[in-house]
Amino acid sequence: TQEMHRQAEYGLAAHWRYKEGAYATQAKDLGTHSAAVAYERQIAWARQLISWKEDAWEQLKHHEIDDHIYVLTPLGKVIALEKGSSPIDFAYAVHTDLGHRCRGARIDGAMVPLDTALHNGQTVEIISVKQGGPSRDWLNPERGYLRSQRARARVRAWFNALDDEASQAPNKVNDGKLDKSIDKPLDKKDEIQIRTRATAANQRGDVLVVGVDSLLTQLAKCCRPVPPDPIAGFVTQGRGVSIHRRSCKTFRGLLERAPERVIQTAWSSKLDSEQGGNKERVFPADLSIIALDRPELMRELFEITSKIGVHVIDLKKSVRKGLAHIQLTVEISNAEALRLVQTGLEGLRGVTEVRRR
Fold it and tell me: Under CATH, which architecture does the 73-168 domain have?
């Protein structure tokens, strides 16, 4: 075509070879063959340099692949990691805060344990919580959670900062702590009576027993304690003594703000029903479940609770990214029954997490 002819005549490499060839022939005829040979040697030398560069790159590339892997974020960004790295290493490579809040991972869309070794070309998605920190188990080399020194250093730094803060806390006295050391007045009559009884019991070394009719007690809905959970009481304003699990976050906040309202409690050796009959008393307990969403999931869940003999009093379900998030409330007589429910639910296909709220 005309365009091809134009490129051949006037393009960047249109004449160099055959013109130089003509020059070499002419030079040979004129007795200047050595100049043409020197030119050819220069061309051969340039080609050899290019060949050496390509060989060196191939060797370097294969060497890096032996020691590193390359995985993708859900948005397609390439992350280089040491061979054998885990999803937690990946999370810290993306961002330190994401590593601290990492609680689960998907590889190519499938849920995997956090100690799973990653491989070249996989797409990794991190499941994180809004707030939280790393686990000390991550630093245990036998567990296989961390491979990279960078991730290990970030986890150590987090716990070092936490330990420093804890060591300095007892030496700090501010207005808030000073206020907490001063007893606050109790204005309501029933509140004064409860505190008087509780104080007298504590002075004798006794405990306030949950279930005694002489004191108004109620189980806190934030943690729903169940026998034989370790418990503590908090004197409320006008609603008697609220009973919390000692591990309850709400109770810890109350203990920090008003320690003078906290009283010692324990479960009664015999917990009868409120009607005084022989029927075993039941307590509500909340479970949080995460599982792969499928049509048979709810049927199998109810089969488990029915087989164990517990009554479901509330259930809420939502689905996000193919995962079913279920909030389940059951009535049980003790913590052992709750453990049986948890074990049964954990055995269902596709269930990734069952925890007590």
Answer: Roll (3.10)
